[in-house]
Amino acid sequence: MNFSQDPINPLENLKDKSKTKSISIYLVLILAILVFIIFLPFLKIDIGSQGCSMLRGTTDNVLVSSLVNGKVTFIKLKNNQLV
After folding, report:
1. Which positions, given as ranges, span the membrane (predicted)?
2. What is the pLDDT of residue 13?
3. DSSP string across the chain
4. Is this structure's pTM higher than 0.70?
5. Which among 75, 49, 52 has a CA at the least distance from the CA of 64?
6. Residue 34 belongs to what domain range?
């Protein structure tokens, strides 16, 4: 390895200068992650969804079938049942 013989900036000084900057970057990153984890339980987000639907009368017959080939053996559906 060929290092320059610069008397003002020897290799040891250059290592020390870059080491303190890199440690401070890691320290800031770790502190930011810790603050995020600490405040995570206090965050509240409302979740909701909307969908298109069609209201049908009770006299309309609705065909219930499975999406795959087979035979439907049991259907537990009633009118006005909560979903």
Report:
1. 23-43
2. 65
3. ------SSS-HHHHHHHHHHHHHHHHHHHHHHHHHHHHHGGG---------------TTS------SSSS--------TT---
4. no
5. 75
6. 10-42
